[in-house]
Amino acid sequence: MTSATAADYAWIRTPSLFSFARDVGYAVTLVRGATPDEVLSRAGAEARRVCAGGDELIAAYWDFAEEGGLYDSSLVGAFTLPGEGGDWTLVLELGGDSAMTPRLSAELSAGTRVVAHTGNGGKPLDFFHWYEDGELRTSFEGPWHRTGATPDALNADLADLGFDPFGDPGDPAPDRKATVLALTERLTGVRLTAGTLAAADYEVGEIPDEPTGDWSRAAADITDAHGARTFAQFRIDPL
Question: What Pfam families is this protein classified in (predicted)?
Answer without folding.
Answer: DUF6461
